[in-house]
């Protein structure tokens, strides 16, 4: 049986070494649409926090007249959060180790967005 | 210590994973023990970052501390987790009314009432706001409020101010346009930023950045990622990097899209060093 576009997109991202999970989130309310996370991760929390952060970043960057962000990369002392909007409604989010190859993760996330159409 | 607080504290000690932190935090808040209440709420939030009631509790404590902006963020998060959360709607109604935005306040209070119709204090508050709107002759129907509508300071800038602000980054590319140093309240400390059409957007963006900084810190912490260090953004009109220059200041670096994000981070770190050196001269 072939995977759904959501599953295929998430699989592309989670195959990047160091990525602990990926999910598609409703950008407006931070609700999980699809997820592929390691067991201990709380999808609802990741979704809500990522959507809220992305929303604030978007407002700040739009306020600067630069248009809506197409890729966001937060680096923290113990890990990384990556996000890329898919249109107005969805946000592709990945949580990764700090040591992740962020360039590769970015490429795979952008490829995943293409799968979603 | 009152009996109820003592009993709740004992329950929480016996079962730290229980939700008893909610009534305990509220009991402490009502008694005015805000430090203890905040500690309990934050411990609970650390364990239950996806629980709307935990964000609601923390927001009420922040409101008692007159930290309305952070309270707004917490209630905003509670609504993201539960769009019908009556406590969050009630709290946002209070904040909007306090900010003189009665229409938005009424919208939130009515949303709260739809979930808690037997709450007399809510009915009373909604009636007061309706009366205020009627006195002002305003139409009640309004678009949904958004966090972006939070108060944005509008400080007039003199030419002397502008020169002083640019001096912080003297010698660096973007000292007057593209480097922006902001305090934790969203007020510009130095640098400048213009939109591609030349409009000065520094103060508007600075106001947004305070919320971004808190959200980045909260997201990183609650997701177990530790302390946030930098956020890099790619946009059609430019790339940006945002990083804490100190515990009290935030730095935004904006460059056009021809500057790769790797170079952008190098520029950001260089500017952060300049900002820190400037801040040390203030102490």
Helix content of chain B: 55-70%
Major beta-sheet overview of chain B: 5 strands, antiparallel
The helical percent of chain A reads 25-40%
Unreliable parts of chain B = 139-158
What is the radius of gyration of chain B computed over CA atoms, rounded to a whole number of angstroms? 22 Å
Characterize the main sheet of chain A: 5 strands, antiparallel
User: Strand sequence of the main sheet of chain A, in spatial order?
Assistant: 2-1-5-4-3
- Alpha plus pi helix count of chain B: 11
SS-based class of chain B:
alpha+beta
Number of strands of chain B: 5
Query: What's the multimeric state?
Result: heterodimer
Could you explain the architecture of this structure?
The complex is a heterodimer of chains A (117) and B (283). Helix content of chain A is 39%, strand content 30%. Chain A is built from three helices and five strands, in the order H-E-E-H-E-E-E-H. In chain A, helix 1 (5-14) packs antiparallel against helix 3 (102-116). The longest helix of chain A has 21 residues, at 43-63. Chain A starts with a helix and ends with a helix. Chain B is an alpha+beta fold and 283 residues long. Chain B is 56% helix and 12% strand. Chain B has helices at residues 3-14, 21-30, 34-47, 52-64, 68-81, 86-98, 102-115, 120-136, 159-167, 202-222, 261-282; strands at 179-183, 188-192, 228-235, 238-246, 249-255. Chain B has a five-stranded antiparallel beta sheet, sandwiched between helices. In chain B, strand 4 (238-246) and strand 5 form a beta hairpin. Chain B starts with a helix and ends with a helix. Mean pLDDT of chain B is 83; it is low at 139-158. Chain A binds chain B through residues 29-30, 42, 44-46, 48-53, 55-57, 59-61, 63-81, 95, and chain B through 49-50, 76-77, 80-81, 83, 147-148, 193, 195-197, 199, 201, 204-205, 208-209, 211-212, 215-216, 218-220, 222-238, 240, 242, 252, 254, 261.
């Amino acid at each position: 049986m072939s995977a759904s576009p959501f599953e295929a997109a998430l699989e592309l991202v989670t195959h990047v070494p160091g990525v602990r999970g990926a999910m598609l989130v409703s950008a407006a309310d931070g609700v999980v649409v699809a997820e592929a996370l390691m067991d201990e991760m709380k999808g609802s929390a990741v979704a809500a926090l990522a959507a809220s952060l992305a929303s604030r970043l978007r407002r700040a960057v739009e306020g600067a007249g630069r248009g809506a962000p197409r890729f966001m990369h937060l680096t923290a002392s113990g890990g990384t959060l990556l996000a890329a909007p898919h249109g107005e409604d969805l946000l592709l989010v990945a949580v990764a180790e700090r040591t992740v190859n962020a360039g590769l993760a970015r490429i795979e996330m952008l490829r995943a967005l293409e799968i979603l159409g | 210590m009152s009996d109820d607080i003592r009993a709740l504290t004992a329950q929480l000690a016996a079962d730290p994973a229980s939700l008893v932190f909610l009534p305990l935090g509220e009991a402490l808040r009502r008694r005015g023990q805000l430090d203890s209440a905040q500690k309990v709420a934050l411990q609970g939030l650390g364990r239950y970052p996806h629980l709307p009631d935990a964000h609601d509790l923390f927001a009420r404590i922040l409101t008692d501390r007159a930290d309305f902006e952070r309270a707004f963020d917490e209630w905003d998060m509670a609504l993201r987790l539960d769009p019908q959360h009556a406590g969050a709607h009630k709290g946002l109604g209070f904040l909007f009314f306090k900010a003189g935005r009665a229409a938005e306040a009424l919208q939130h209070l009515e949303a709260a009432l739809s979930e808690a119709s037997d709450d007399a204090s809510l009915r009373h508050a909604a009636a007061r706001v309706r009366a205020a709107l009627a006195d002002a002759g305003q139409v009640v129907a309004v678009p949904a409020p958004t966090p972006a509508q939070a108060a944005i300071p509008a400080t007039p800038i003199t030419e002397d101010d502008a020169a002083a602000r640019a001096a912080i980054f003297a010698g660096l590319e973007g000292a007057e346009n593209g480097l922006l140093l902001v305090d934790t309240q969203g007020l510009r400390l130095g640098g400048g930023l213009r939109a591609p059409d030349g409009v000065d957007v520094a103060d508007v963006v600075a106001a947004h950045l305070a919320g971004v900084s808190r959200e980045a810190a909260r997201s990183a912490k609650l997701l177990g990622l530790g302390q946030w260090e930098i956020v890099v953004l790619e946009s059609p009109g430019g790339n940006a990097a945002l990083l804490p220059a100190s515990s009290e200041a935030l730095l935004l670096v904006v460059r056009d899209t021809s500057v790769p994000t790797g170079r952008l981070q190098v520029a950001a770190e260089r500017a952060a060093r300049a900002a820190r050196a400037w801040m040390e001269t203030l102490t």
